[in-house]
Write a structure and sequence with these properties.
single chain; 162 residues; mainly alpha; two-stranded antiparallel sheet; 5 helices; elongated
C-alpha cells in the first residue's frame, strides 16, 4: 500500500467567545486598523507594526488570559471542592452518614461548628466560579475599561460620578 498525503481540509479554529471577539474589535478600533489608507505620522508607524499588533490581539493576549485563568480559576475551584470534601468526610466520621441527605443537605447537626463549616463550604463549592465565568468577566472588564476612556480616536478622561 502506498502512502498518500492527507489532502483533507485543515480544521478551522474554533470561534472565539463573544466577549473576546467584542474586546478584539474594540482593540482594532483603538489601534485604528480601519485607517489603513492613511500613510503619514503615527498612521505610518501603526501600518508598519500592524502585523505585530494584530498577532498580539489574536494570539498572545488570549493566550496570556487563558494561562492566568487556568492558574487561578481552576485552581480555586478545585481547592474549594477539595476543602468541602474534607469537611464532608469529617461530618461522616463524627456524626455518621445519616447526618447528610443524598442531596447534600444536612439532616441534623446544623447548629454545631462542624455543621456550620460544612454548610459554608458547601455553598462556596457550589458557587465557585468556573473558568468560563472568570474568562467572560475578564474580557467584559477589559472592554469596559478601554471603552470608558476611548472616544472618537482619542483617549480622554471621562468623569465618573458615584
Amino acid at each position: 500500500m502506498k502512502w498518500a498525503p492527507d489532502r483533507s481540509a485543515p480544521a478551522e479554529p474554533p470561534l472565539p467567545p463573544p466577549e473576546l471577539a467584542r474586546f478584539q474589535a474594540l482593540l482594532r478600533e483603538l489601534f485604528q486598523f480601519d485607517c489603513a489608507d492613511l500613510d503619514f505620522g503615527i498612521y505610518r508607524i501603526m501600518n508598519h507594526k500592524r502585523e505585530i499588533v494584530d498577532r498580539y490581539i489574536d494570539r498572545e493576549l488570549p493566550g496570556a488570559i487563558e494561562k492566568a485563568v487556568a492558574e487561578g480559576a481552576i485552581h480555586t475551584e478545585a481547592e474549594r471542592a477539595r476543602i468541602f470534601e474534607e469537611i464532608r468526610d469529617q461530618m461522616i466520621e463524627f456524626f455518621g452518614a445519616e447526618a447528610i441527605a443524598p442531596s447534600g443537605e444536612l439532616v441534623k447537626y446544623e447548629e454545631t461548628p462542624l455543621g456550620q463549616k460544612y454548610t459554608l463550604w458547601r455553598e462556596r463549592a457550589r458557587h465557585s466560579e468556573s473558568a468560563t465565568d472568570v474568562r467572560r468577566d475578564i474580557y467584559n472588564h477589559l472592554h469596559a475599561f478601554f471603552r470608558r476612556y476611548y472616544q472618537d480616536g482619542d483617549f480622554v478622561p471621562k468623569r465618573r460620578y458615584s
